[in-house]
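Entry, Tuesday afternoon. Goal for today is a structural model of the target with glutathione bound, before we commit to ordering more compound. Inputs were pasted exactly as handed over by J.K., no edits. I checked the ligand SMILES twice against the vendor sheet because last time a stereocentre got dropped in transcription.
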Amino acid sequence: MKQPDFDGQIAIKGSPGSPYTRKMLAVLRYRQIPYRYLHTHIQSQYRLPSPKVSLLPTLYWPGHSGELEAVVDSTPIIRELESMYAGRSIIPDDPVIAFLDYLIEDYADEWLTKAMFHYRWHFKEDASFAGNMLPRWGHLTSSEDKISIMSDSIRDRQVNRLYVVGSNEITAPVIEASYLRVLDILDSHIRSCPYILGARPSACDFALYGQLTPLTHFDPTPTQICIERAPQVYAWVDVLEDLSGEIVDENSWVERDQVPGTLSALLKEIGRVHAPALLANAAAVETGSESVQTMIDGQKWMQKPFPYQARCLSWIRQEYGRLDQEDREDLNQIILGTGIEALFEKPV
Ligand SMILES: N[C@@H](CCC(=O)N[C@@H](CS)C(=O)NCC(=O)O)C(=O)O
């Protein structure tokens, strides 16, 4: 088997059930970047280099030496793609709005994903649906007997990994209440503004879209909730999937002095749940604690520390540190009273 070069195009290895795969596919489509999608059932047909950490999606592009390079982690990949391909940028020009974009992207990737994983594997009906469906993408021609064995093993493995995102009996009410709130916030935001940061999409739209694809269109319990409670969000997810034909008005990101109330509501939600989770997790990682124990949204929160999310907090702080004095003052005004300020009050 020869290593492919994909004719110089980007290749993306992923799966329909992976929210980060959906995020990156939607980015590539909107940005009109030609790509090859390596669907689960054909991945073994290629001899591909291994990424540093085995995650979906993995993107492949020519590295400095000309050899195919395997990369993971959607947030830095999005920034790398900005320098590789011009036009249809998804990073706002205004550094203050770009900071909000980074923060909301992190909220989607690192907090909303708790809801995604929780709803997929916490309730019996959802776990059984996902277990039944997940192996099929990679085994289209398999018999029902073989699929059934794979279903049981995927379901058992994933239910046992719920602790990774902090989903357990103590945290379930916090996660579920935050899912309902974010649906309400997005439903009302979308009615006045098609994208999170204005009339053109940015990285955070795709991050939210990624996590919302399974939550609103796959896993039965959260899908039903979305249809009943926030139909506009359901429709938004459909639309975000392919924005390749969207005409981009260069000046249509929100102005820093005109942040709409519905966006402030989203920032408050981030300050309410994601900021305390990031801080408590980073403190636990720093001190080498066995467990993160804190209060989130007035309720008890307990989970195993997640070292990657401690790095997320330091990256958010780096982004904040890059703002010049005037930009930082303007940003501080926007986040005043949201709870996000706590991220920058003292070093961990
Ligand atoms: N931070 C990564 C997260 C990617 C990720 O967690 N992908 C999941 C699938 S949606 C995965 O590959 N999980 C494999 C595992 O947990 O073993 C990104 O933004 O791409």
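The first helix runs from residue 19 to 30.
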